[in-house]
Amino acid sequence: xxxxxxxxxSVLKIVSGSAQEITIIPMPQKAIASKGNFTISSSTTIVxxxxxxxxxxxxxxxxxxxxxGFTLKAGSNSSNASNIIHLNxxxxxxxxxxxxxxxxxxxxxxxxxxxxxxxxxxVQSFLQMLPATKNQTLxxxxxxxxxxxxFAYRGLHLDVSRHFMPLDFVxxxxxxxxxxxxxxxxxxxxxxxxxxxxxxxxxxxxxVGGWRDGTIIGNYPGKGNDxxxxxxxxxxxxxxxxxxxxxxxxxxxxxxxxxxxHASAAIAAYPYLSCFPDAKTEIKGExxxxxxxxxxxxQNKIVxxxxxxxxxxxTPTEQTFGxxxxxxDEVMDIFPSSYVHIGGDxxxxxxxxxxxxxxxxxxxxxxxxxxxxxxxxxQRVEKYVNSKGRKxxxxxxxxxxxxxxxxxxxSWRGEAGGIEAAKQxxxxxxxxxxxxxxxxxxxxxxxxxxxxxxxxxxxxxxYDPQPAALTPAQQKYILGAQAxxxxxxxxxxxxxxxMIFPRIAALSEVQWTNKANKSWKxxxxxxxxxxxxxxxxxxxxxxxxxxxxx
Length: 550
Ligand code: ACM
Hints:
Layout: H1 2-17, E1 30-40, E2 45-48, H2 54-68, E3 73-74, E4 84-89, E5 100-105, E6 108-113, H3 116-129, E7 138-147, E8 153-159, H4 167-179, E9 184-188, E10 190-191, E11 194-195, H5 204-207, E12 211-212, E13 230-231, H6 236-247, E14 252-259, H7 264-269, H8 289-296, H9 318-334, E15 339-343, H10 350-354, H11 356-364, H12 370-387, E16 391-395, E17 408-411, H13 416-423, E18 428-430, H14 433-436, H15 457-461, H16 472-475, E19 478-483, H17 493-500, H18 503-512, H19 520-536, H20 543-548
Parallel strand pairs: 2-3, 2-4, 4-6, 8-9, 8-19, 9-14, 14-15, 15-16, 16-17, 17-18, 18-19
Antiparallel strand pairs: 1-7, 5-6, 5-7, 10-11, 12-13
Helix pairs in contact: 4-6, 9-12
């Protein structure tokens, strides 16, 4: 009996003293846990060596203050210092930027990043190891991590045209990207239902195009119109504030200015941008009373109040190109990103078919048809953007009629566009609707009005951005992956959170974790720790998605 008791006791001892589970998301490439904890408290010092690490030290302290209620003092290095969080640089020679090492042992937390990004990502991993409950002392498990990203482009998009999102929430959204080591925020700033960025030379874009007088109720075509005036826009100073905020989190902001389709808001502000300035804006579903009154009193063009694709698109006149160049000049002044997203998707060709000017232009330029005209449009804009030292990225329709010479393709209608572009030796970002459209429902039964579709967590997790149809040499053109959040049916920040959590966690392993280290089973095990953390961060997540993940 005593022998059996002793045996049981020793087994328990091994279990209780053994290495703890690593619950970091995205899963690091190499992580070895060992016995023991190091405890962070207000007497722990941060020692940062290397230029430019102050913002990351501030980030770390702000996080501790916000969620645990204390900050740490910054100190200077001494070789035998203990009870420290030490941040430093170390050449790690990984082909993709952002590699880091993180060691936690008796003397403290030792971070070595290949550069500022690497140090920042190590800090994110460290923060995910802190207890998920508020306390003055925070034990973190001893661990050795060597980590680096699989892909250079790790994006998440947000549509602020269909529903405007407040500036403070955009910052929170950027924090969510940072937490999972994403590095690109694709900001969808213009569309049929609202123009959201101040352009000083064209004030009506936001005065007129930034607002609509109502929105359809329920799913398209809707059960009437709510007749509630809604909208908003970001001033250039606010947009610059977002760029700075994102940069401190190692995130690039790519602005999207849609062309030649999805242009109703711009056309409502400046009707000369349409092929038919005197034609009334087409009504699908039901317009608000105010919009109908405007049309009755002679204002033809209206900011759209319903969803879908509209025939009234930019006319390819010199005046339109002049307008777009002016807009892009201001946009490129605000956003330092190497990419400008020029949209390019869902441009119906009916207006161009009916327009004598467009037909003459097709003849004059020796273009094959309206698809050729779309290609001409995009190539002209590309030339302009390239002349300013920037590159264009566009949705996969920019392949139709011939790809602009230096364009990067965002493949959304499945992977076919991305595969074709990679074969043509163009860079590609994969964002297929089948796996990465976070506006789709997460459960089989909808719990609120959504756009439709069904995208459960395991489908997101299973995605591999490098299609087998490409050779290894062609796969090199796949820069990475991005998920998109279209907001036709997402009116509030709370619902934005609900739609992205926890799918953003699965996305991050698609983008960061090497295939050999990706494991759905392992991911599911790490989810309960994530859920506790989302509670600490007070995020409105989809609880059912956690309960049903197996
Ligand atoms: C898209 O979803 N229209 C790019």
